[in-house]
Design brief:
The longest helix is centred in the first third of the chain and has 30 residues, at about 1-30. It is globular and about 40 Å long. Helices cover about 35% and strands about 20% of the residues. The protein has helices at about 1-30, 35-40, 85-90, 115-120, 135-145, 185-190, 230-249; strands spanning about 35, 50-55, 55-60, 70-75, 95-100, 125-130, 155, 175-180, 200-205, 215-220.
Length: about 250
Amino acid sequence: MLKRILWRSVFVIITIVASLFSGISLQQRWGHAEAMPEAVAIAVTDDEVSVEDGRFLTLRPRRVAERMGLIVYPGAYTDVRGYLPTLRPFAAAGYRVVIAHMPFELAVFGIDRALEIQAANPDVKRWALVGHSIGGTMGTLFASRNPAALAGVIVWDAYPPSFANFPDYPQPVWLIHRARPDGSPSPVFAAQRGEFPPEARWVPIRGGIHMYFGSFEKGGYEEEWAPSVSREEQHAQVVRATLDALAAM
């Protein structure tokens, strides 16, 4: 009798796990954001930046000395190469940029991946973290649990989970967010202001949208409004603001 109950329990657990992974697979297939061809085209080494795609996607400066490391937590169901137009300038400016390949393309399954990146790059002594979308949310959770691991956190169009105790995070925090043309944030962010440290710096991307933090096509994300800036202009603003944040760290 006990053996039968155990087998039934195992069967239920296997069924739940199989359903979970099946659902993740379907979501990836239906909502996957593909990197645009121009982003894929720059996933190569040139005179300024070396590109290594293995366990992590790593960008290294070739013309200037490295300042520090930058860990990147990507948004859900994205080809991470779609972030290269906004990330290559950081490598060219002297930052070792390491983009985390997340399990099942979901940062919720790789919250502590920053520790693996740091262990794999022991020569880099100081790190900051930038996260987009759910990658930003999980990045703030990682930072709140490991306050000494990073020199600061840069959040691209996301906000911390309420249980993260992120308002007490002691390092610099910058939120770079989509905004209406007048600079006002989305109500989504306005409602979450209390989840950030009081000293956090908020930088609006006027007329920007969520998916213009990278270069993607397809995907299932529904924007709040149509963009009033080009993708290239938003990239330029995001890069400038992020470089300012890194300089402050």
